[in-house]
């Protein structure tokens, strides 16, 4: 049986894995731009950045397997392609973004150095840690997350009790959908299907005699506890951003806003401390992403060290190339990839959570294919080619919110289940 202490450890580990340092720059600007609708944007953000990722952990608790198991009901080939896409996106976007966040929050305010130099040094160190697989970062990570949370909680409380609840005007056309789409940028749904397998392995190593049902219940509880923690932190950050609506220019960047709020609420020393902690936490995240990707590729090539080394080199080179750009640019570049891969990930999570009788192999296949087809217009729109599908898209419900895949996928899910029931 998993003890309460072990459950707490797993809950905190999940929270730490989801709460990447890059994530905390997203909620404040949402609040800053949403005005009186900060609560609505919070609901949208937490739907895609908390609820769906936690369902991903629940799905892992049910499967107790790896990322490959999420899509194998569609077909083994599809699942393998999906895995490669997820890992390629991970080393190409969220990993480099950690270097960009580190430069903008921890380097640029204090030193006159170029972002390229920061990126080169940053991923040079990442490469060394990935090759040597040092356990120093694991120990460091256990200290970083609590320290960052403590500073953020202090910042949030200082904002709540030090500023009037005057939120200004909403600048977002659709606050709820804007929150959902910004939640995509956390990459947490993708993180759930990737790191959930790591949690399963860790539990099995320490508790290999525990029955399947007990592990499933414990992992699901840990997911719920970590989800509640994420919800309160994200809500506090959105509300804090809303309280500072008149304190900064409307066009302020995400990193500058977080630094500015930290400076106003906590002063120079705490702001400097937060910048250092964020930089270190970003570094551990980058090492984790590159290591995880290299491990996956290595497993596909008969566990050869060469495959691991080549993947690590590619991951760090991509990090240098992309990491020299500012955070806003990387977020903009990430949008097309997310508009395609995120709907598929969400659907796979939801289908894997459902009981087997509602999620047969045929249901998986038809729902995923439908999701892919109806995600294409949103993908094309995100790269400026929306006019090519405009006549078609206007008939799709929710397409104006860039979620035209939702109702078609739901409809196909219902029809496929009804037909399957009648054929039995």
From TrEMBL:
Recorded GO CC terms: plasma membrane
Topology versus the membrane: Multi-pass membrane protein
Membrane spanning residue stretches: 7-26, 38-61, 73-93, 113-131, 143-163, 183-203, 224-244, 272-294, 306-323, 329-351, 363-383, 403-420
Location relative to the cell: Cell membrane
GO molecular function (one): L-isoleucine transmembrane transporter activity
InterPro entries: Brnchd-chn_aa_trnsp_Livcs
Keywords associated with the record: Amino-acid transport, Cell membrane, Membrane, Transmembrane, Transmembrane helix, Transport
Signal peptide, first to last residue: none
GO biological process assignments: isoleucine transport; L-leucine transport
PANTHER family: BRANCHED-CHAIN AMINO ACID PERMEASE BRNQ, BRANCHED-CHAIN AMINO ACID TRANSPORT SYSTEM 2 CARRIER PROTEIN
Family: Belongs to the branched chain amino acid transporter family.
Name of the protein described by the UniProt record: Branched-chain amino acid transport system carrier protein
Species the sequence originates in: Croceitalea dokdonensis DOKDO 023
């Amino acid at each position: 049986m998993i003890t309460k202490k072990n459950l707490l450890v797993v809950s905190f580990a999940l929270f730490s894995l989801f709460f990447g340092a890059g994530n905390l720059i997203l909620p404040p600007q949402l609040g800053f731009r949403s005005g009186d609708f900060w609560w609505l944007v919070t609901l949208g953000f937490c739907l895609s950045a908390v609820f769906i990722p936690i369902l991903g952990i629940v799905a892992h608790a049910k499967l107790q397997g790896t990322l490959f198991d999420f899509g194998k009901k569609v077909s083994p080939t599809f699942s393998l392609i999906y895995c490669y896409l997820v890992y390629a996106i991970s080393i190409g976007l969220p990993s480099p973004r950690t270097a960009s966040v580190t430069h903008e929050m921890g380097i640029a305010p204090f030193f006159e150095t170029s972002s390229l130099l920061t990126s080169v040094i940053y991923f040079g160190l990442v490469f060394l840690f990935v090759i040597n697989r040092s356990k120093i970062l694991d120990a460091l990570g256990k200290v970083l997350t609590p320290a960052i949370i403590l500073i953020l909680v202090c910042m949030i409380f200082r904002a709540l009790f030090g500023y009037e609840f005057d939120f200004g005007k909403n600048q977002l056309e659709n606050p709820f959908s804007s929150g959902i789409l910004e939640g995509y940028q956390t990459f947490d749904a993708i993180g759930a299907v990737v790191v959930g397998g790591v949690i399963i392995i860790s539990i099995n190593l320490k508790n290999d005699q525990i029955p399947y049902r007990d592990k499933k219940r414990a992992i699901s509880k840990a997911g719920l506890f970590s989800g509640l923690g994420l919800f309160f932190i994200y809500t506090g950050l959105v509300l804090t951003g809303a309280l500072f609506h008149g304190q900064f220019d409307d066009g302020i960047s995400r990193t500058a806003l977080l630094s500015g709020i930290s400076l106003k609420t906590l002063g120079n020393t705490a702001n400097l401390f937060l910048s250092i902690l964020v930089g270190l936490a970003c570094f551990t995240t980058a090492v984790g992403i590159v290591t995880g990707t290299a491990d996956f590729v290595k497993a596909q090539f008969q566990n050869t060290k060469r495959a691991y080394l080549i993947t690590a080199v590619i991951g760090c080179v991509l990090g240098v190339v992309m990491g020299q750009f500012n955070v806003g640019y990387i977020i903009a570049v990430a949008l097309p990839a997310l508009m395609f891969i995120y709907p598929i990930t969400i659907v796979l999570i939801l289908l894997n959570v459902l009981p087997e009788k509602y999620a047969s192999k045929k249901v998986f296949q038809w729902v995923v294919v439908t999701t892919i087809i109806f995600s294409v217009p949103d993908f094309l729109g995100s790269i400026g080619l929306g006019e090519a599908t405009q006549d078609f898209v206007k008939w799709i419900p929710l397409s104006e919110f860039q979620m035209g895949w939702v109702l078609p996928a739901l409809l196909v899910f219902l029809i496929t289940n009804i037909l399957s029931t009648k054929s039995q």
